[in-house]
Amino acid sequence: MMASHNTLDGTRRTGMLPGSATFRWGVITLAGIVGLTAVAGGALMVFGPADAVFMPPVDLLAGTVFRSFVIPGSLLAVVVGGTQILAAALAVIRSRWTMLALTLASLALLVWIFVETVMIPWSALQAVYFAVGLGEIGLVLIGLGLLTTRRQR
Question: What is the pTM (predicted TM-score) of this model?
């Protein structure tokens, strides 16, 4: 169910408001999944054995400033994963800082994917995470009321 409220000019604004259950669960779901997978992927890159199934080959780093996946893995886990988990956790406790945290988390994700696609060969997984980052930006815009409809009372 979509939330609605009256604005100061007497119009009714409907949509997914920051306090609504739809908005909260959207943030919890998207940011939670991205956060957990980013932390897991980053931890695997830092601590995983080089021959692990999901470990990217070190050859991908040829032509970059990195010689191992320790720094990229740490950045993925802490910056991308950490901000996503923070946004999800703030949504769980209904914090007024959820919107800001989601904005920062989605920007961190989009920057990560953009830089990654510049530095290493493109993969479908990058496209999926880029789409999720755009989806999170969409949640922010909806939560701010920028993508909602206005109806007269």
Answer: 0.81
